[in-house]
Amino acid sequence: MKFKIRFIPFLIEIISFVIFLIILLNHTALLANPSKLYSTSIAHRLQTDALLHGHLSLSPRPFGYLMDYDWIGGHGLQQNWGLGVPLLRLPFEWTSVQLGAGPFPDRLILLFYLILTIAVLNITLRSVMKTFCVGLSSGIRFVIRWYFMAWIFFSQAMGGLIQKKINVYNETVLYGCLYVYVLICLLWIYIKRPNNRFYYILCLLSGLAWLIRPTLIFYGFPTFLIASIFSYKDKRSSRLIIMGIICFCIGVAIELWANYLRFGSMLDFGCPESGSVLVNYSARFDSTFSFYKIGILNVFKELLGDLFFLHPWQYHAVRLRNQMGNPFNIIHLIILVAGLILYGFFLAFHFLKQINFQRLIGVNFGLIYLSLVWGLITFGLLFSFYAIISVVSFRYLVEFSEALNVIFIALVLLTFSCLRIYFRRKESLISLFVFLGLFCCYANHKFFKFDQQSIKKRYQEQSTDKNGIKRRIREFNQGILQRPDLPERSYCGQSYSTAGLRYQYLGWDIYKDCSVSATTSAILPSEKCVTLNYTVRNIHEIPDVQVKRDLMYLKLIETNFNNIKGSSQVQMTQSFCSDAQITDSLALYSIGWVNRDQLNKVRGGIAPVKLNWLTVAQQSLNR
């Protein structure tokens, strides 16, 4: 009889889990075509294969260069999406290699971690709601818990990642979101049941968060900080906290050391060669979206409009805005404001000592309070970061969803905790539950407006079968094997594919009379100096040229110019040199052509400059 009583709720949970997963997958492109389970984006797969062979770089040479990849002399060819996802893929690929089964399907790996996150989050919420919803029956708690799950996974933000596109860009952000949800679950478990070993694991995982994406440190650091403060308030030993700090620092040190080995600098997460003029210029030289020039109010207004509205306050400054809508709506803004107001009341009454919150809502006030603090801190850190960078996209803004969802859960749990004390009748709780249900459906209704044919069409472009993925890897390896001698001098008539480099002369438009964009890049033999010869329309349009060899700025040591046709055109010859150590036989030379007060030329893409030729040579800086 006892077995039957325990088995029935377990069976209901399993059935609910399966139904939830089926509905979720039906609304996404994850398994739209079961015969094509491999992603056409091979960056994570190439990095996983490199790790299996014991090295970080995809190749020691730049040949085989792909868009959004990075090559720095002496550090090899790198992908720019971090080591976190390849490390998560590593056990599956290693097992598949050992069994001789070939490449492991990318979609199945992602599906495994999606299911794992849903299970961990569901189990954790079940444990948390047993504490805060004592007055409710198990059935009502069950429904509310699945409402939380629907609120998270059927949201506009999550739908934007997995409903239409699952490429390397969205996939990396999705892995990051899943990681953060597991992290907050571990924090909740630790606050409910403190355990020394669990604290060490939590601190280590918090430090490792930015292996997936650099911005996840804004979730990892608050998680570590709140866990440490809780341990201190719980009067746990100082030795425990010191060991936690060491574990967190180990995680951070791993990422910093990996950055140094991959890109030559601990704080460099890669400057990819992109098809965007603005991204190339901002990554290699100056940011085109200046926080100080635009003003704090305009910057914050623009980001606020991008998050919750349809971009009503975009500033006129040049910025790459790659958005397909807003990931949140006015309901989420109300949640954020309610969280801020509640936290303000907590602080005010704490200092005035007017209300004993511990008595008001029960002994687990710490979990609600710390969850609220966690959500507000992480939201504030992300908001400050994305307000000042020169690139903003829908997938970037999705990272705010974890903070907003935790604030929402904290507010609901606080409400039920108060009702448990002041209202004994279940009818009032059920009424509140119905209101919250309508609230959830209204706030998340856009996710269910999907076009199944559109999903299948896009999926065909982003997925392939085993033969297709083997062909893509073979093409990449063939590109690496091409190792021709690169010329020391390059002329404007040469094509992008000269010397076997797919993105050679990026920004050098040979079809428009060799005009150049804000940034021109080329891989050439590594020498002390580079000389540029270019033509501008008139003396007033001469750009402020900047040159980099890999990550090092070269110093301007000589300038010569003469008029070609009276005052209509000016031909410039400039030499840039450096005595800095040369670490490799080849170097990536990046040339910035835009004056700081002429950033409007970045918007048009092409500056009024015709690059005639460039050359590198072994010369002395003090010649």
Describe this structure in words.
There is one protein chain. The chain has 623 residues and is α+β, with helices and mostly antiparallel strands. Among the domains are: 167-270, no CATH class; 489-617. The chain is 53% helix and 14% strand. The chain is built from 22 helices and 16 strands. Helix 5 (138-153) packs parallel to helix 19 (426-443), helix 7 runs antiparallel to helix 8 and helix 7 packs parallel to helix 9. The chain starts with a helix and ends in a 6-residue tail after the last strand.
Radius of gyration: 28 Å
Overall pLDDT level:
82
Low-pLDDT segments? 450-455
Shape designation: globular
Beta-strand content estimate: 5-15%
Largest sheet: 10 strands, antiparallel
Percent of residues in helices: 40-55%
Number of continuous helical runs: 22
End-to-end distance, in Å? 94 Å
Structural class: alpha+beta
The beta-strand count equals 16
